[in-house]
Amino acid sequence: MSDRPTTPIYRREPDKVATYEPRRVVTSALVEDLFFGAVMLFTFVFAFVLLRQGVTRWTSVAYLIVFWAVLAYLALPRLHRVLTAIYVPGYFIGRSRTTDGLLGDPINLALRGTADQIHAAMTRAGWIKADPVDVGSSWRIVRDSLARRSYPQAPVSPLVLFGSIQDFAYQQEVEGSPAQRHHVRFWPTPPGWLLPGGHRVDWLAAGTFDRAVGLSLFTLQVTHKIDRNIDIERDYIVDSVRAAVPQTRVEVIEDFSTGYHSRNGGGDAVATDGDLPIVDVRAVGVPAGSVGTSTAAGPAAGVARRPFAVVAAGVLTAVSLSISLVTGLAEILGTDWASEALADGVSEDLGQVGLWLVVIAIATYAVLFLLAWLTYRGSGWARWCMLVLLSFSLLSQLLPALGSDRPTAQTLAAMSLDLLTIYALTTMSARGWTARHDAARRDRRSARPVLP
User: Fold this and answer.
1) CB of 156 within 8 A of CB of 184?
2) What is the largest CA-CA distance in the chain?
3) In this structure, are residues 248 and 121 in contact, taking their beta carbons and an 8 Å threshold?
């Protein structure tokens, strides 16, 4: 019988790591996440304060409407963003995601070709490119939906794939109603990326049919409700392109994803057989003068552009500072100090106190204005300082409001402005934009020549 051991014995130990970088307990990402979570808690507390206002006062309807708006557009989306960051995988699983992190519409189309060839094919097939989502287009779709007016270029809500929202979208209205439409979103695939199974494509798309306007099941926001059978819309898109552009080739990956019954980010039921058509538009001729009309793709899009959240934070800060400065000065200068001081014979002392209060108030507002301006210019540390100051300001107003004293309309307005500003400054777009600006400034400083 052999004397050899039954388990292997390693005679040589692997080399030890000589040096390692110690793990930092407090990082910038951790601070950002703390602010991100704090504003979610502030929002729920503020919503509770509004709910109490609506329950007890004659203006209850107005307060309840504002409560719904805060809950649907601030609190619940931020909560979903935190939770989905934990359990929803970031890699490709055949589903897009909402900007709140919820699973969105399934990916049911793939394409080969350039953006300009897709534009040409979709235009020939009678599809209309959707306007980008901004303040003007958002207001117009609300106005035209209520008035039942046609808006052929109505924007579609942003969905995320590969970390970026769709590059563009196309749609077709049904009988001139913005409430019902065919629409499809397009995302470019990352360089060298392959579909599961090894298929190479240039674009992925999600096509669905909007059947009505309603409330989202998960966020209570006003949104379009889609038809359950998304395969009908997928086949309609493919057939319309093939009919208008005969040189288009189509191959189908059968059972690409398991057929399932699920829900999208708005809570609408979806069902599909799991087939994935690949539409090849590389033979489509591009009209002269249209080359280069496509939008920038992927994460590089909008790197140099100041995000709307930063602009909104600047505007909200300016409004808040203006209101606070006017009301503060009015309260200080409108007191009965002068008459009381004359009666008590201490007018000079009280006048000095009032003057110092005015100076301190103006200095505080000047500092906040400077921080807001530096944040607008892309300073990350200024954004952090603003978040700290605004958080303390909001907390000092929320805590008394949770007690027996009901806040006044002026206090509610001040809290709402602070909350909206914090919300804007903690968005991922504002966070990423200021981080890129800080990195660019560090690179410029390191690239400067050192004088002897």
Assistant:
1) no
2) 114
3) yes
Distance CA 84, CA 100 (A): 8
Under 8 Å between Cβ of 250 and 210: no
| Burial bucket for residue 336 (CB in 10 Å: 0-12, 13-18, 19+) | exposed
Whole-number Å distance between alpha carbons of 275 and 216: 27
Q: Report the distance separating Cα 340 and Cα 170, nearest Å.
A: 70
pLDDT at site 126: 93
pLDDT digits (tens, 9 = 90+) for 429-444: 788 888 888 888 877 7
Closest CA to 83 of 97, 94, 68, 93: 97
Residues 132 and 151: their CA atoms lie apart, in Å, by 13
**Nearest C-alpha neighbor of 317 from the set 359, 392, 378, 367:** 367
Closest CA to 279 of 122, 91, 96: 122
User: What does the alpha-carbon distance between residue 78 and residue 273 come to, in Å, rounded to a whole number?
Assistant: 33
Sheet holding 159-161, edge to edge: 103-106, 95-98, 159-161, 164-165
Whole-number Å distance between alpha carbons of 81 and 71: 14
| Tens digits of residue pLDDT in 253-277 | 988 876 666 766 666 778 888 899 9
83 vs 73, 87, 95, 185, 265, CA distance in Å?
Answer: 16, 7, 17, 25, 14
Give long-range contacts, CB 8 A cutoff, 24+ apart: 359-364. Answer: 361/325, 361/328, 361/329, 361/332, 362/325
Which residues does residue 28 pair with via DSSP β-bridges, in sequence order? none
Predicted local confidence at residue 349, as pLDDT: 53
348-359 per-position pLDDT tens digit: 555 565 566 667
Give the closest residue to 278 by CA, choosing from 252, 245, 304. 252
Q: Which stretches of the chain score pLDDT less than 70?
A: 1-26, 55-60, 135, 145, 178, 216-222, 258-261, 263-267, 288-304, 325, 328-358, 361, 404, 447-452
The angle, 0 to 180 degrees and rounded to 10, between the axes of the packed helices 347-376 and 308-333 is: 170
Distance CA 307, CA 376 (A): 10
With contact defined as beta carbons under 8 Å apart, do 233 and 220 qualify? no
**Rounded to an integer, what is the distance from CA 178 to the centroid of its chain?**
23
